[in-house]
Amino acid sequence: MPPVAAAPARRGGERGAPRRLAFVCRSPAVHTHPGRGMGGRQGMSRDSQVPGFAVVGRPNKGKSSVVATLARDDSVHIAAAAGSTRDVRRFPMRVDGETLYELVDTPGMQRARQVLAWLREHCQDAAARPAAVRQFLLEHRDDAQFADEVHALEPVVAGAGIIYVVDGSVPFGADYEAEMEVLRWTGRPSLALVNPIENSDYVEQWVTGLGQYFQTVRVFDAHRAEHHKQLELLSLFGHLDPEWQQPLQRAVSVLRADRERQHLEAAEAIALMVEEGITYSVSQALPEGAPEAPVKKLLYNRYCRHLIRRERQCREQVEALFYYRELKTAEAGMDFDEEELFDQENWYLWGLSQRQLLVAAGAAGGIAGGSAGMVVDGMAGGLLHGLGTLAGGIGGAIASSRQVLRRSEDIARWTVSGIPTGGRRLVYGPSRNLNFPFVLLGRALQHHRQVSQRTHAVRGALKLDEPVLDWLDDSQRRKLALIFEDLRRGRRVDQRRSELVGLLRAWCLAADHAESSSSSR
C-alpha cells in the first residue's frame, strides 16, 4: 500500500475538471436576527432547512480553521493576528448542488463577563435564560462595545448549534468560564473542540474543564483532521439534536460517496495525463532544401510546452476535485534545458531506481530482446517546467545491463520521412524513455496524496519533493512497464488503459486507508 504524505495549500480560481462543490454566500457580513430562526425550524439553516452550526470562542483559537476544514473551503480567511474575523460569514457545504450543512464563522467573544453579568441581573429563572439572551441581543444590537458578542450569539439564538473552539496548547483558565456559561444560557445543543494549535500540553485540562459545560468534548486538530474524523464529528452532532440526526446521517453518506468519486476521477485524470505524456509527438513539414536546425528547435520547444501544460492541467483537475481553488504548490519543474547535465542525486527521485529500471525494462522487452529500442534513463528531480535534466537521459537499445545506463541526448527520438509533395517531415516524439512515465506517475500520485490528505485550513504551500514509488513491488513495476510500452506502441490500447486506470483507482483509494491506519497507531 502506498505511503501517505501530509502537506500544506494554493490559491486560484475555478480550474480543470468540473467541480461539484458550490461555494456561495461570500458577502462580507451576514447577520441573523434574534428570535428569527435560520429557516422555518429551530436549528436548521435558511438554506434548504439543513443543520447550521455557529463556530464560536475567543479570538485566535482556530475557529476559522475549523470552519475551513468542515466546510472544505479554502476561501475562509485565516490569519495569525487575533480578531481577524470581524463579521459573521456563512459557509454552506454543498455537493452536487445540495446543501448538506452550514458553518457560521463568528468574531471572537471578548466581553463575556460583562454579558454574563447583564444576563444574571435581568434573569433569575433558569427556564427564562434563552429569552434573556435574546433580550440582550435586542438591547445591544447597535452597541459597539458588545459588537463581537452580538455577532457571535445571533446565529446561536437564531437556531444554530454551538461548536465552541479552544486552543489546547494554552492553559485552561477560570476566565473562560464566563463565555461557556453565556453559551449554556442559550439552551442550544453544543459541542466543544480542543484544537491543539501549537502542541497538546494542556489538552487534558481543557477536556476536563469543558466537560462541565458542554454535552460533548472532542480533540480536533483542524490542520490534521483526517476525512474520517471529520465525518465522525458530523455523526456525533447528529446525536445532539433529534432534528439533525437524519440530515446529518445523509450528509455523512453523501460525503463518503463523494470522497470515493474524488479518488476515482483523480485516478482517471492521472491515467489520461500519463498516457498522453508517453504517446505525444509533434511534427512539421520541411520544404526541399530547408534547414532542419531551426525547425527542430521549434518542435522541441513545442513538445516541452505541451507536456508542461498537460501536467499542470492534471494538477488543477485533481485540486478541483478535492475542492481546492486557491492552492499554492512548490514543485520542482522538469528541466529540458539541453545545456544542463543530470543532477545524479535526483535521477530517480520521481521514477524508478537503476535496479528497478532493469526489472521493468525486462518486462517491456528491452533487455530480453533488444528490439524494443527502449531508452532507460535516470530522471532528474525536476519535471515539466523547462524539461534539460531529463534530456540528458540514457540512450540506445537495451542489450545488456551494462548498456542500460548510457547517455542519450533527448527524452524522445527524432524521425525524418519523405512526403509525397516533396521535402521531408520532422517528427519529435513520442518518448521512448522507460523512466519517463514512471516519473509522471510518481509526481502525480504524490500530488494526489498530499491534496487528498490535507485539510482546507492549511495555508502553506504544497511541497512536492519526495519520492513516492518506493512502495511498488517488482511485479507492479513490470506490469506498469508493460502497460506503458503497449500504450506507447498503440497495442491493446483499450485494455491497457483500463488496466492503468484500475491500478490508479486502487492506489488513490488506498490513500485514505493508509492515513486512517497511521493515525490510529
UniProtKB/TrEMBL annotation:
InterPro entries: DUF3482 (IPR021871), GTP-bd (IPR006073), P-loop_NTPase (IPR027417). GO terms for molecular function: GTP binding. Residues 54-138 form the G domain. Residues 29-48 are annotated as: Disordered. This is DUF3482 domain-containing protein. It comes from Mangrovimicrobium sediminis.
